[in-house]
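ugh ok fine here u go
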Amino acid sequence: MTGAIAGRDGPAARAARPTVAGHRLLPHTADCIVEAWGPDRASCLAEALTCLVRSFAEVPDAAAARVLPLAASPGGSEDALVSLMEDVIYAVDVFDVVPVRFHLAETEDGGIAGDMEVVPSDHAAIVGPVPKGVSYHGLSVGPAEGGWRCRVLVDV
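structure:
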């Protein structure tokens, strides 16, 4: 019986399973590390943005008060992640909003485009410092077994 279970959960079986999107936040001295994964690049990046927001706010399950565009030019996936995260940090700082949902898709030219649904910041519970920036130190974004993964250090 053990052989049947091992065969069912072996590398070939794991590779055939679709990757479920997800994320986790890890502490790092005075900063934090965002790790995210998904079946494709756009879903992985959207999970990273969701994790970024959850690092400082408890997001309500509320209708968006506003929708703001997001886009990253064609180029490297690392640059796309940093650009999108900087756009989120900028929107939080300048417009006093908190994103509640992200929608991203690949563009025909290799970029990323979409939007973020936001609510006024007083509609969310702020539970930590709002990030100040994103570091290229230790940044990784790329295909992984069954999908995409990313890891980024966020300056808080």
